Amino acid sequence: MHFCDGMEQPKKIIITIDGWSSCGKSTLAKQLAKELNYVYIDSGAMYRAITLYFLRHHVDWTISTAVNEALKHIKLEFVANHKNGQTEMWLNGENVEYVIRDLVIAEKVSEVAAVKEVRDFAVSRQQEMGKAKGIVMDGRDIGTVVFPHAELKIFMTADEAVRVQRRFKELYEKNPNITLAEVKQNLTHRDYIDSHRAISPLRQAADAIVLDNSHLTMKQQLGIAEKWVKERMK
Fold first, then answer.
1. Which residue of 62, 72, 86, 156 is 20 to 30 Å from 209, comparing CA positions?
2. How far apart are CA 127 and CA 86, in angstroms?
3. pLDDT interval class at 85 (50, 70, 90)
């Protein structure tokens, strides 16, 4: 796909993708980053890695002093895996990309992400990563809090039943004992916390474009997003 004509290089922009759990935000973000040769930043992976650290070290995230002390010992990095072309989450020098996808982490990540100190910690690092532009970042508050002046903001949504099926399929491959009811309960719980938390709740930015992908293929949703990117790059 070509975004420029002749020798002129298109300006680099920031693309934010926010939305509900299991809407395929990271899938679209990765697709766009690959097409544009942009850096993909998975904000959710950062919160998941912090959650993993807290669980491993028995950090009580309801106590500010405990959280602040723990955050001093957390170093997050996105490292490119040249074998599969993916960017993976590293926590204190350890590749935790697969560990953080576990349901145990999924059950706690929304609670941890709602803690003000945790959000401040993650947001400052995300904003640092975005200074050079040319990034695609997905999450819950990227277009509203992290990059309120992003050139393109996409808000993704899908029917709850569709989201539950997608999440179930994803988790079933790793844990065949998982039930549809467990997945639905986890999704509903995360939706509630994400949209009701006091700090940076999930909400659609006023200038975001809604992308409902309930009945779209990956190729179709990428095509729609690419059209929006072209318009913003002019």
1. 86
2. 21
3. confident
d(CA 95, CA 45): 12
**Which residues on adjacent β-strands are paired with residue 136?**
15, 40
- Averaged pLDDT, 215-220: 95
CA gap 20, 212 in Å, rounded: 11
pLDDT in tens, 89-143: 999 999 999 999 988 999 999 999 999 999 999 999 999 989 989 999 999 999 9
Query: Do 168 and 178 touch, CB atoms closer than 8 A?
Result: yes
Helices (H), the chain: 25-36, 43-56, 64-71, 103-113, 116-129, 160-172, 180-196, 218-233
DSSP states of 185-204: HHHHHHHHHHHH-SSS----
CA distance 82 to 78: 13
Helices then strands, counting H and E runs in the chain, come out as 8, 8
